[in-house]
Amino acid sequence: MKKIINTKHAPAPIGPYNQAILVGNTLYTSGQIAINPATGELVLDDIKTETQQVMENMQAVLNEANMTFDNVVKSSIFISDMNNFAQINEVYATYFDSNSAPARETVEVANLPKFVNVEISMIAIK
């Protein structure tokens, strides 16, 4: 049976989806972009600030499911420009212990929702 996970501490979905779905002990998150949940505004000052907002949004979703980044087993990172990879990775790395970091792929795509530069989704297990 699936449980819908939504929190006001992350941006509200902008389409027919939820922030995450919990099935048993496994959490499947939707992709997060850099929307400040308090203002609804995009945070696009620079790629590091944008990535930090994405990760803070993801942290809020994980917390709503009583999980942390320690529970994450898989991440998917979608970026609009592979030249931003090093800076995105630098911010992303601050949220994980390198010895137990999740599996991950990073894919350059043509466009992302609202034409942001980075979107991240995760799978976590309790």
TrEMBL record:
CDD domains: YjgF_YER057c_UK114_family. One of its GO terms (molecular function) is deaminase activity. GO terms for cellular component: cytosol. InterPro entries: RidA, RutC-like_sf, YjgF/YER057c/UK114. Belongs to the RutC family. NCBIfam families: Rid family detoxifying hydrolase. This is Reactive intermediate/imine deaminase.
